[in-house]
Amino acid sequence: SQKIEQNSEALNIQEGKTATLTCNYTNYSPAYLQWYRQDPGRGPVFLLLIRENEKEKRKERLKVTFDTTLKQSLFHITASQPADSATYLCALDEGTGGGADGLTFGKGTHLIIQP
Amino acid sequence: EAQVTQNPRYLITVTGKKLTVTCSQNMNHEYMSWYRQDPGLGLRQIYYSMNVEVTDKGDVPEGYKVSRKEKRNFPLILESPSPNQTSLYFCASSYRDSYYGYTFGSGTRLTVV
User: Fold this and answer.
1) In this structure, are residues B34 and B90 in contact, taking their beta carbons and an 8 Å threshold?
2) Most-buried pick from A33, A96, B59, B67 (CB within 10 A)?
3) Contact A43/B90, CB-based, under 8 Å?
4) What is the bridge-based pairing of β-strands A109-114 and A11-14?
5) Cβ of A40 under 8 Å from any chain B Cβ?
6) Per residue in B32-70, pLDDT tens?
7) What letter does residue A84 receive in the DSSP assignment?
8) What does the alpha-carbon distance between residue B97 and residue B110 come to, in Å, rounded to a whole number?
């Protein structure tokens, strides 16, 4: 199965700055890659999905890039706010795409936005 | 409201006493999965299902069973729980094309003593 690496240490960012989180994977390139947000004790919430043939995807203050050559995805939050503080999870499908085999998750990066 | 509902939210049980954690979704999703989350290990998939009567093992299936007799329900069964199954469990569901991602339940915190 895929091995997914995310920044294991907490990431401290000053309010208003851009937060950049990294997701690296080791095996085959998945059909798509997903990003989730998780607050303590709660279920992950889907944020964005990017397909292997897409270089970049945006949603409001969020931007995701996908580089299959580097086997890496970057997740950006622009104009960060304290309410963005949470753990962010990267997830890949294990099968041929479509999520039929469920997802493999990274361990997540804990993001702290300081006022 | 579109949601995945898990019950119970919290459960303390004793070793060996069979239990079932229920999961139900109201979005007509084809795909459903169970995950456990442990400190330092992240989310790990236990079982998944592509549709009714179609289930398969994930990364950590030992000690668990599932069934998918109806599209909306995907219960997780622990036949003989052990302390190493103490964890936070999440059920999730998705459309066939997971372009909209998975929707997760609120979680079940299980303690086996």
Assistant:
1) yes
2) A33
3) yes
4) parallel
5) no
6) 999 999 998 999 999 999 999 999 999 999 999 999 999
7) G
8) 31
Q: Which of B31, B41, B104 sits opposite A44 (nearest CB)?
A: B104
Q: Which residues, listed in sequence order, are joined to residue A63 by a DSSP beta bridge?
A: A58, A76
DSSP B54-85: EEEE-S--TT-EE--SSSSB--EEESS--GGG
User: For residue A83, what is the DSSP state?
Assistant: G
Contact B50 A100 (CB under 8 A): yes
CB of B89 closer than 8 Å to CB of B78: no
- What letter would DSSP give residue B99? G
Give chain A positions within 8 Å (CB) of B105. Answer: 43
Contact A44, A100 (CB under 8 A): no
- pLDDT tens across A34-75, in order? 999 999 999 999 999 998 888 899 999 999 999 988 999 999
